[in-house]
Design brief:
Blueprint lengths: L20 H4 L9 H9 L26 H29 L4 H5 L1 H8 L17 E12 L5 E3 L3 E2 H9 L7 H16 L11 H17 L2 E2 L2 E14 L15 E4 L3 E2 L10
Antiparallel strand pairs: 1-2, 1-3, 1-5, 4-5, 5-6, 5-7
Helix pairs in contact: 3-5, 6-7, 7-8
């Protein structure tokens, strides 16, 4: 009698169990992750491609090339010189406005040569009581003729020269605006009313004012050498309404300094 096998999955000849039906079905696209797995399975793996480089295979960073020794020395010297110049400037300005001390008196000439007139500090710039008068500075010289006779020039208005350079000039120089005026203020603050110097700054202020006048006049006047110079200052009050307390009429007064002898050393360094 022949036995008939029921219908179903055939049994492999090797004796291995037949795969389950679910294993042979295609993946359901509605199942999460099923499409990704299918795409990954379809992508071909490049044959023989090396794995990505790891940390051990990274290229070392390029380090900047150090500066030559000579360049570093030059930069260091330039920094030292710049720092020294800044320290000297700030120290000089501080000593020029600070109260008198042994240090400021010891370096008075060096400080004055550096500060005046370009870096002078005028703390009265915003004073509540501004100047109430116009100050003018004039000079005259005495010349020596070959026969020994001496001749005085007329008064030369130095302030008027500065005003002429300022008017109509959109950018007047600092010297035209302040050099002569501050020189007279320096002299006035360093001398008594009878022209006696006050402290060490008296002689310095007189020499400063004298050299400014000689620079304006020159070594000769009308072809004759200058042997003496005299300076005076005019003071004219500013008029104004009666309620301001200013005088209604201006009356000019003069302060005339003594004659100062002139020699070649007074012109040293003057252009």
């Amino acid at each position: 009698m022949r036995v008939t096998e029921p219908p179903g999955d055939p049994i492999p000849a090797s004796g291995a169990p037949a795969p389950h039906a679910a294993d042979t079905l295609p993946p359901d696209p509605t199942t999460p992750g099923a499409s990704d797995e299918a795409d990954d399975a379809d992508e071909p793996v490049p044959g023989g491609a090396p794995p990505p480089d790891g940390p051990d295979d990274a290229t070392p960073p390029v380090r900047p090339r150090p500066r030559p020794l000579a360049s570093r020395i030059v930069l260091a010297l330039a920094a030292v010189v710049l720092a020294g110049a800044v320290a000297w400037h700030l120290g000089s300005v501080f000593l020029s406005i600070a109260p008198s001390t042994p240090v400021s008196r010891a370096y008075q000439n060096a400080v004055a040569a550096h500060v005046y007139p370009e870096f002078e500090q005028n703390w009265q710039l915003f004073a509540p009581n501004p100047l109430q008068e116009n100050i003018g500075v004039q000079a005259r010289v005495e010349t020596l003729a070959p026969d020994g006779s001496r001749t005085d020039s007329g008064w030369i208005d130095l302030t008027a020269q500065d005003i002429g350079h300022i008017r109509g000039n959109p950018a007047p120089s600092h010297a035209d605006q302040n050099l002569l005026r501050r020189a007279w203020d320096f002299y006035d603050a360093s001398h008594t009313t009878d022209e006696r110097p006050i402290g060490d700054r008296g002689a310095l202020s007189a020499a400063y004012l004298k050299r400014i006048a000689l620079q304006r006049v020159g070594r000769e006047w009308q072809g004759l050498p200058v042997v003496q110079v005299q300076i005076r200052a005019s003071s004219t009050p500013v008029t104004g309404p009666s309620w301001t307390g200013a005088p209604p009429h201006a009356t000019t007064s003069f302060r005339t300094l003594p004659w100062w002898p002139v020699d070649g050393a007074d012109y040293q360094g003057l252009s």
